[in-house]
Amino acid sequence: MDTTQIQTLGDELYQALTKRETVAPLTSRFSDISIEDAYHISLRLLQRRLEAGEKVIGKKIGLTSKAVQNMLKVNQPDFGYLTDAMAFSQGQEMPISERLIQPKAEGEIAFILKKDLMGPGITSADVLAATECVIPCFEVVDSRIENWQIKIQDTVADNASCGLFILGDQAVDPRKLDLRTCGMVVEKNGEIISTGAGAAALGGPVNCVTWLANTLGQFGIALKAGEVILSGSLVPLEPVKAGDFLSVSIGGIGNASVRFT
Question: What angle, 0 to 180 degrees and rounded to 10, lies between the N-to-C axes of helices 35-51 and 3-19?
Answer without folding.
Answer: 50
